[in-house]
Amino acid sequence: MRRLRRGSTQDRGRSGAWVRDGLGDAKVGAIGIRVANGVSMHGISLNCDNSLDPYATIVACGIADAGVTTLTNVSGRHLGVSDVVDELETRLAHYLARLAPAARVAAEVSA
């Protein structure tokens, strides 16, 4: 988001990446992890240039008082997955590498 010269925000109590605009808060992406019945699932979403039409019939993420948007809408220019995937991968790898030492310590403490 910084590269797009748009501020993103985190909203306590709400998961995901958010932007603020004249219409209020809008979700642009999220990372999710779930463990159920001994099976872990994970995923990442980033709305790039997708249609927002399906969101007209659902309450995205159960959050009724905020909208959803795309990087294309936020930036004012077309941004597809191929335009952002390399930077997303690089930033995510750096972030996870910073978490790795803390995760090792936590695992050692709980063992």
Account of the protein in words:
This protein is an alpha+beta fold. The chain has two helices and five strands; from the N terminus they run βββββαα. Strands 1, 2, 3, 4 and 5 form a five-stranded mixed β-sheet that branches. The longest helix has 30 residues. The protein is globular, with a radius of gyration of 16 Å.
Number of helices: 2
Strand-residue fraction? 25-35%
Task: Please tally the β strands and state the result.
Answer: 5
Percent helix:
25-40%
Tell me the Rg in angstroms: 16 Å
Structural features:
111 residues; alpha+beta; 2 helices; 5 strands
Per-chain topology:
Elements: E1 8-11, E2 14-21, E3 24-36, E4 39-46, E5 67-68, H1 71-75, H2 81-110
Parallel strand pairs: 3-5
Antiparallel strand pairs: 1-2, 2-3, 3-4
What is the structure about, briefly put?
The chain is an alpha+beta fold and 111 residues long. It contains two helices and five strands; from the N terminus they run βββββαα. A hairpin with a 2-residue loop joins strand 1 (8-11) and strand 2.
